[in-house]
Amino acid sequence: MFATLPLNALRAFESAARLLSFKAAAEELSVTPTAISHQIRSLETWLGMPLFERLPRRVRLTDAGQRLFQSLHGALLDVAQSVDSLRPQRSTTHLTISTTAAFAALWLVPRLGRFYARHPNINVRLDTHCDVIDLHQDASVDLVVRYSLDTYSNLYGLCLFDESFGVYGSPEQVALATRQPPTLISVRWHNSKLYAHGWETWCAQAGETWLIREPCIREYDEEHYALQAAIAGQGLVLASNILVSQSVASGLLVGYRPQIQIDGAGYSALCVPGRERHPPVRAFFQWVEEEARLSGHTLKNPVKLFQDRVTQN
Known about the structure:
Blueprint: H1 7-19, H2 22-29, H3 33-47, E1 52-55, E2 58-61, H4 63-86, E3 93-98, H5 101-118, E4 122-127, E5 143-148, E6 156-169, H6 171-177, E7 184-187, H7 198-206, E8 217-220, H8 223-231, E9 236-240, H9 245-249, E10 254-256, E11 262-271, H10 279-294, E12 304-305, H11 307-312
Parallel strand pairs: 3-4, 3-5, 7-8, 7-9
Antiparallel strand pairs: 1-2, 5-11, 6-9, 6-10, 6-11, 6-12
Family: Belongs to the LysR transcriptional regulatory family.
Pfam families: HTH_1, LysR_substrate
Protein name: LysR family transcriptional regulator
């Protein structure tokens, strides 16, 4: 059944497709770039179709190459996991998650103790760099938690919860805001369309005239800085109901006119199709789904998997 499969060529292709570089694949597999090129040429001849577009100084996957990479990458991950399971067990297994610094600090890290209690052998490493990672090319990251208005038809994913924004402050600042215009705390987001005109929208819905009176507005680059400023009594912050939940539960922040909420985007946990079968990734998906349900946030849509969209594309 497998006798005719060109396994060496498939391994060379997976490395070159993941790294988008014949040279980098050669370094990873300890062979020459010429050997990688030869293996891929032979695979393309065997399949009867090109897998890469050869461009000046780089290569790009064709549609056929992308389809082959998605299935092959997941299959090789399964093989690697099966082989590892036969070796003497290591004391820990590593799981690398990419997400924003704010989500890590304000939602994920405070809850990770419950994950470790259930899975003491899994060591979670958080990557909180701002750059969006291409999971099909960067195999060092197991999964991502993204906040976005977009959908991801080429990834396996779990929609966690939808987000809304409200106004929060320390108990003293909330009481004071009923008598005089407050200092407004805002976040200068890298993706402005997710936060642009947030205060204007909230004030319009609430019927507040704060913005007409030339208010004092303090801006921060990260949400957790803005929340710390609000906790310290520096004003009222327009903040995510997801990210503010721990501070509200502990009484550090309270809502100002909490019935007034404006829509945000949504959080999803995502991985390359096939990687969800990797035990640490599967364990995290199961745990984070439970945490999303227990968080008490109202969802416009129930927690759901969208792997069906992956298989249809």
